[in-house]
């Protein structure tokens, strides 16, 4: 393992440790703050009710109120789709960069001989 790969591995381990620490901290902090995972929609509805009690919504939801498990599943599906789109985009960008680098390297390393494919 060369030095650059070794450094990259430690950077990855450090980033994973930071991600785990953030997740644990947010769960502990949330448990101390009341423990309820309240969505932004409910908070916005309460604020709108305080600011403008006579507010009428423009439309009704397409689906009735879903149970918590179904709602969590739909949210996880949305997150998975979004993660797939972001991952695909990053893969496309990385591939383009690699192809451009290979094209630039290949153009500078072209053979200098004018001989044909057989070498005669």
Automatic annotation (TrEMBL):
MF annotations from Gene Ontology: cobalt ion transmembrane transporter activity
Protein name: Cobalt transport protein CbiN
Assembly and binders: Forms an energy-coupling factor (ECF) transporter complex composed of an ATP-binding protein (A component, CbiO), a transmembrane protein (T component, CbiQ) and 2 possible substrate-capture proteins (S components, CbiM and CbiN) of unknown stoichimetry.
A GO term from the CC aspect: plasma membrane
Low complexity: bias regions: 104-120
Organism name: Dietzia natronolimnaea
Pathway(s) it belongs to: Cofactor biosynthesis; adenosylcobalamin biosynthesis
Similarity section: Belongs to the CbiN family.
A Pfam family it matches: CbiN
Residue intervals passing through the bilayer: 7-29, 73-93
Membrane topology: Multi-pass membrane protein
Record bears the keyword Cell division: no
Subcellular locations according to the entry: Cell membrane
Domain of life of the native organism: Bacteria
Keywords: Cell membrane, Cobalamin biosynthesis, Cobalt, Cobalt transport, Ion transport, Membrane, Transmembrane, Transmembrane helix, Transport
Functional note: Part of the energy-coupling factor (ECF) transporter complex CbiMNOQ involved in cobalt import.
Residue numbers spanned by region Disordered: 99-120
Keyword RNA-binding carried by entry: no
GO biological process, one term: cobalamin biosynthetic process
Annotated HAMAP family: CbiN (MF_00330)
Signal peptide: none
């Amino acid at each position: 393992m060369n030095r650059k790969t070794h450094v990259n591995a430690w950077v990855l381990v450090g980033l994973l440790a930071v991600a785990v620490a953030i997740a644990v901290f947010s769960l502990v902090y949330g448990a101390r703050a009341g423990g309820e995972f309240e969505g932004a929609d409910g908070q916005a509805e309460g604020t709108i009710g305080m600011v403008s009690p006579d507010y009428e919504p423009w439309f009704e939801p397409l689906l009735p109120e879903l149970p918590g498990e179904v709602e969590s599943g739909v949210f996880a599906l949305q997150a998975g789709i979004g993660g797939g789109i972001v991952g695909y985009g990053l893969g496309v960008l990385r591939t383009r960069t690699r192809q451009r680098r290979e094209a630039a390297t290949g153009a500078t390393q072209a053979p200098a001989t004018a001989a044909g494919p057989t070498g005669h």
